[in-house]
Amino acid sequence: IRSRFSRLIPSYFLFAFFIFFSKYIVSHFIQIDNAPDSIFAIFDIILRPVNSAVGFLWYIYALLVISFFSALFRAAVPKASLFFTAGAICLLFVRGGEFLATQRIFESVIYFALGWLVADRFDLLLLYVKKFGVAFFSLLALFLMEISVTDVTPLNKLITSLLAITSTLWLGSMLHNFS
Question: Cα–Cα distance between 73 and 120 in angstroms, integer?
């Protein structure tokens, strides 16, 4: 975790401050999208990162927060990936806000958790993919035909993620068998 923080934090703040001050200065001369209205808006980079002048960097902020809590979880809980994934599924149904980017973190943590779970239980997942790969792929195809682009709910995201991971593994194993 220390190495991830040492890579992400300096670059996040370097880019954030550079962009913030550039927008702040240039906005006095020309129209700038999402320009800070005062120098005190610099605090939004941490407190409300999605709505700050550097809102497009929210994913780095979310990755830092998720990495921090996953490291704490890994150190404190046996079989951490299972419980972390269960918690991430629950967070899909919790309404966050813009403060500390909680809504974006709650929406994004499931992908981090699923990746962690797959990494921890890859052999077991491959066993299930070999047995039920056609079913996973068929369900993904049916599910994608059924949901509309505007009907993106937390449950739809979860189902799509799970089916996409298993279907991709199955397709990869099928392509590997043909070569």
Answer: 14
Q: In angstroms, rounded to a whole number, what is the distance separating the alpha carbons of residues 25 and 174?
A: 56
Q: Contact at 8 Å (CB) between 141 and 174?
A: no
Our measurement of the distance from residue 95's CA atom to the centroid of its chain's CA atoms, rounded to an integer in Å, reads 16
Residue type, 93: F
Q: What is the Rg, in whole angstroms, of the alpha carbon atoms belonging to the chain?
A: 20
| pLDDT tens column, 69-116 | 888 888 898 888 889 999 998 998 888 888 988 998 998 898 889 888
pTM: 0.73
CA-wise closest residue to 103 among 72, 69, 65: 65
- 29 CB neighbour count, 10 Å cutoff: 7
From CA 15, how far away is CA 54, in angstroms rounded?
A: 9
The encoded tokens of residue 4 equal 């991830």
Residue-by-residue DSSP string for 37-90? SSGGGGGHHHHSGGGSTTGGGHHHHHHHHHHHHHHHHHHHSTTHHHHHHHHHHH
**Structure letter (DSSP) for residue 170:** H
Q: How far is 102 from 110, CA to CA, in rounded Å?
A: 13
